[in-house]
Specification:
Blueprint: E1 2-3, E2 7-9, E3 12-14, E4 17-18, H1 30-41, E5 46-54, E6 67-68, E7 72-75, E8 108-114, E9 119-126, H2 130-144, H3 149-156, E10 160-165, E11 168-173
Antiparallel strand pairs: 1-4, 2-3, 5-6, 5-7, 5-10, 8-9, 10-11
Helix pairs in contact: 1-2
Length: 177
């Protein structure tokens, strides 16, 4: 609890007990997201990409705060009837760029575990196009950084699955637990 002294709002003094809200990452303008986004739209091998964004309904007693999920990407290599390494139909989960998974056509960054140092070492890229992989990871990092939550929430809403194709952006209601 903080007692406000010397604070004003629209020229009016504010006093009393003020409880701080959730700390948020400083928000950035859409202009900083635009080149990362456009790099994937302009890539001839990327057919579509997207993400989920929502406020959880329950968070084990913690405050439920809006967030953006990991980026998924489908390239021409996956095609319309693509299946993943287990024979399952391509889905946003098989094309997820989470650092723990290999993307079916973009590749991955492999790491060696150093048992003595208890950390990963020797990060190296394995795949067909490291620059494309890095562009996808740059957008993924920006989306998940929290720095664009305000613009994403204002544009696409809460509980949304966003799919970006060259012809446009589709937003569907995202059902989650």
């Amino acid at each position: 609890m903080q007692i406000a002294t010397g604070t004003n709002f629209l020229g009016m003094p504010v006093s009393g007990d003020i409880t701080g809200g959730a700390t948020r990452v400083e928000q950035k303008p859409i202009e900083e997201l635009a080149p990362l986004f456009q790099a994937l739209v302009d890539d001839p091998t990327i057919v579509e990409f997207g993400w989920t964004q929502y406020t959880p309904y329950f968070n084990d007693g913690d405050t439920c705060e809006f967030g953006v999920g990991g980026l998924w990407v489908r390239t021409t290599a996956e095609g319309e009837d693509a299946v993943d390494e287990y024979g399952n139909e391509f889905s946003p989960y098989s094309g997820n760029l989470d650092v723990e998974y290999s993307h079916p056509s973009l590749g991955e960054v492999e790491k060696d575990w150093d048992r003595e140092a208890h950390k990963y070492i020797n990060h190296y890229y394995v795949g067909p196009d490291e620059d494309r992989y890095n562009r996808c990871q740059d957008l993924n990092g920006a989306l998940q950084s929290g720095a664009f939550e305000t613009v994403l929430l204002d544009t696409f809403g809460d509980h949304a699955m966003v799919t970006v194709r060259k012809a446009g952006i589709e937003v569907e209601f995202y059902s989650h637990d």
